[in-house]
Amino acid sequence: MRRDDEQRDGDGDVRAELHVHPDGTWLYVGEPHGILRVPLGDDGRPEAPAEWTPGIRPYGLAADSTGARLYVTDPPGQRLLWHVLDNTGRPSRGVGWQVFTPTPAEPGGTVAAHPSRPLLYLANRDEKAAVSCVPLSEDGRPDDGGTTTLWVRGTAPLHKGLAVHPAGTHLYVSDPQGHALNVFALNADGRADSDGPSLTRQVHPAPGPLTVHPAASCVYFAERETGAVYRTALAPDGLLAQDIAPEQLPGFTAPHCTGIAVHPRGTYLYASTTTTLAVTELSPHTGHPSGRPVTLPLPRR
């Protein structure tokens, strides 16, 4: 990414440069020189050594539901890119990055994948179509003709984080400028009605990157600047629990957070910056912290 692009987009943009492979073997971390792959133990504990895929720094990063492809967003280039992964979760050799340019919407900062259907959700620059639903063909290529849009309150598309309920029933959209969490009820095909969110909840901290616990007990989100991480409970129907304020996780911070993710087994929560990775152990059933958080330096290329 060029320096002038970084200055134009600003440091306030929500990024989601952190993602766990669906089988739990790798933690993908976007960093200034490419994508770092951190191996994870059986329980989700980060291990060494890490590996790099150089050349692209994503704003958003997500694997599809099969774990066969990795998708990244590049707002300055107005592109969505993807790479085929082998059965170990590594980029396939001899196959480069494929490029897709959506029209008319321009991809913004974040991307999320439906957990069971070939569908991506993209945050856009266009304020009137702030989130797009993009279907994927059998070879993983996005289908521009089948793209639909969701209408999201707020006026800063780049300042939105995305996460999907593990059962595929709801899409969660953070709006830090509006200090709000939006929830969309999803249909069986993974799409949503275009008349707005099912629920909008005002929250005091400005929610940036977010993720959902696999037991569907809660949503975690990070404040972009302070890096404070919060847990907000979910009701059994997938909506935000009533009359329960977000609780800050003690000692778990990632200032200028670039992403947040949870292990598919619900055992660990991760939050990244451009230089560090914060990790805390979780109860796999409730999503509450069950250990003391630690902050690890990311290896430098």
Supply database-style keywords.
mainly beta; WD40/YVTN_repeat-like_dom_sf; Secreted protein; 4-stranded antiparallel sheet; about 40% strand; about 300 residues
Can you give a write-up of this model?
- The protein has one helix spanning 3-9, and strands spanning 18-20, 26-31, 34-39, 51-54, 61-63, 69-74, 79-84, 98-100, 107-113, 119-124, 131-135, 148-150, 161-164, 170-175, 180-185, 199-202, 207-212, 218-223, 228-233, 247-253, 259-262, 268-272, 276-281, 294-297.
- It has 301 residues and is mainly β.
- The strands form 6 sheets. It has a 4-stranded antiparallel sheet, with no helix packed on it. It has a 4-stranded antiparallel sheet with strand order 5-6-7-8, with no helix packed on it.
- Strand 21 and strand 22 form a beta hairpin.
- It is globular, with a radius of gyration of 17 Å.
- The relative contact order is 0.14.
Strands, helices and their partners?
Layout: H1 3-9, E1 18-20, E2 26-31, E3 34-39, E4 51-54, E5 61-63, E6 69-74, E7 79-84, E8 98-100, E9 107-113, E10 119-124, E11 131-135, E12 148-150, E13 161-164, E14 170-175, E15 180-185, E16 199-202, E17 207-212, E18 218-223, E19 228-233, E20 247-253, E21 259-262, E22 268-272, E23 276-281, E24 294-297
Strand composition percent: 35-45%
SSE pattern: HEEEEEEEEEEEEEEEEEEEEEEEE
Helix/strand structural class: mainly beta
Q: What helical percentage do the residues reach?
A: under 10%
Radius of gyration: 17 Å
**Major beta-sheet overview:** 4 strands, antiparallel
Number of helices: 1
> How many DSSP-defined strands?
24
Cα distance spanning the termini = 16 Å
Show unreliable segments.
Answer: 1-11, 154-158
Shape annotation: globular
- The pLDDT mean sits at 87
Spatially, the strands of the biggest sheet line up as 1-2-3-4
Protein name: Secreted protein
Region (Disordered): 281-301
InterPro entries: WD40/YVTN_repeat-like_dom_sf
